[in-house]
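Before a colleague's protein record goes any further, I have to sign it off. Thanks in advance; the entry in question is below:
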Amino acid sequence: MLLWKFNMPRPKKCHRDSLKELCLVCLKKNKVQPISQALKEIIGRHIYPHFEAHAGCLPRSVCITCRCFLASLQSSTPHPRPPPPLPDFKLMVEELRHISLEKQECSCDLCGVARWLLVPNIERPKSKYLPREVSLPPPAPAPALPQPSSSSSSQPQGPSTPVRKLLCPECFAEVTSMQAHDCKGRGERTKNLEQRLTPRSSDHFAAQHIRNRVETSGSRTLTLSNVHGRPTEVTAAPHGTRAKRQLYRPPPLEHSTMFALQDTSSNMSDKALREQARVLRQATGNRLAVQPGLAKAMSERGKKLAPFFETRKKTFKIRDEQGKLQPVEKDIVVVKNPKEFVDFVRTERDRENIRVKVGIDGGGGFLKACMGIISDESRSPTSSPVAKKPPVPIGGERFKETGVKKLMVVGIGQGIPENHENLRTFMAELQLSSLSFCLATDLKLCNILAGLMSHASSYPCTWCEASKSNIQEDIPGPLRTFGRIRAKVGQFKQAVAEGKKVGGAQFLGCVEMPLLENADQEDVLDAIAPPELHLMLGVVAKLFDELTDRMKKELGSTAPTDWARHQHIMREQYRGGTLEGNQCRQLLKKSLDLARALPDKFRAFGLVLHRFDEVVTSCFGLEVVGDPETKIANFKQAYFTLPVTITPKVHCVFDHVPQWLHRQEARMGRKVGLGFATEQASEAVHRDFKQKWEAGFKIGETREEYKDRLLRCVVRYNGGHL
């Protein structure tokens, strides 16, 4: 390969370039450096008093030799270095001040000297401004030397004057008057100073500098620049205390940081938190490592929400050993006034426009009513599940308002089964009718709260009156209203009172009065949102179980289960080995890989799962992505190619999810997804509250202090979520 080299012409030098290449003192083209501020003061004091006024038309650099000479003038020794011949600055200023600095091919004397090149046999030009020599005042006479004794007369006599040592004004290096100095500039200044100071003097200098910076800036946290790299942050202890000698002691951990540590850790009781603070103080050797008064702050934190809650004793139907429902008194904790509680939380969080989401569910041994108080301005990523965010400092806004760490427990009772009678008693104590809220719960509770029979009945759908046979034929029914449900319940109760043998199927599955006090003309779809988590769990479990059973029955193969295990998608051991939310989401994301791994006969199952993954990504998040109606239509078309039944959850995705999305867009003026009313936080609260209950509060129900323990646990739990 040939490489061609092009010699580009150099730009012509101007008058300004010549001034930069010449030394101000000797007017020679040597190794020069720009004139520093310290040298400017020396030149104005000893060489040319009007240098500052005429600096624009004079050379702007100094060579190494002249730099040492100028440094010797500033020295306090009585023997300055002998001066070089000095130029006539007055004549130089008169001739050069009218020349433009940008003039090229200048014919002045200095430009001629600057254009000289180091060529053999060509004499260095000499400036015409160097005709004279300026003599400095004669040095003071040296002290007389003692006369040598007669015994030493035979020894040769010579001068014994010591060589003077000077400091370079730029790099602070030690130089002598008899030796040229190769100055390396300010880069070596710190190193040379450090070599000249003892370790004790360095400590004194650093301590005094930090103290001066603290007094000047008024802050104990300082930023000190380094020669190389990033600045160093130093925190100084308050002046005038015992800790003033410990300049590098970090600030104490605040109470909010310790509380955040407790909230983000599992099974950390108050006693364990105090032990953590003790260990930190002991390990650092500093009693101020943790902000004082932690125990008092913990007590106040627990009492902040105490006025809003109380314990009550109510009767619930509990199954005995024979499986029969028997009335049993239970201690429950409920919020006194839901509206006042919501206003208090909104004020504490500094929010203006909020929406309230209520979730009711049983799990972890407790029946709970939870409340999410969410700002209307809060946003999250549009896809589902929510993408991870960058880490936030401890003690700040670490958690989303839509998550479990901001959820409030407003009602709780231990060992209460989920049935209509128990929920009627429970809802009556909550008094939620004073609030405008959106209900987020699972499908079982949806039917119970609406007064309907279970999803195994002939009319299983919560939101429409379609029968089970119509659902299989994809024939939607009219939407349910609260007024029509109440009317059907009245007819059912009257028929039972008359002694007629009737079933709930004759009254569209309406057998109990709705527990929600909505208007008669209001649709159930407006009050109870489709539960996106349970819809995803039900659809994925239906398709994957059908695929697994059919392949095992027809081919004797466990390929889907083996593939899922290879992808680390494992079933949980409880509830017959079900797939949880994260496992279902991983399965949907890898559905195309599953389709490629299946035989041709069963590949359609993987493709249907992929179509459902598009639906989940489009509208199961907080906001809508793309066109969810098209995605649902594609999923519906692909689903009908499979020899599987249509469950109530699949029917809800086909028909009621698009209806709910349209209604929310019309109501709010913007598109929102099912994540807007998700029940995920209400499901996650079971494990979260169980950890708090078992970390210092758990006690038997028969103990006298049980209700006080339960009340303190709820107050402390909500205080950590405030």
Q: What stands out?
A: The chain has 25 helices and twelve strands. The two ends are 72 Å apart (CA to CA). The first strand starts at residue 32 and ends at 34. Residues 12-133+164-195 form one domain.
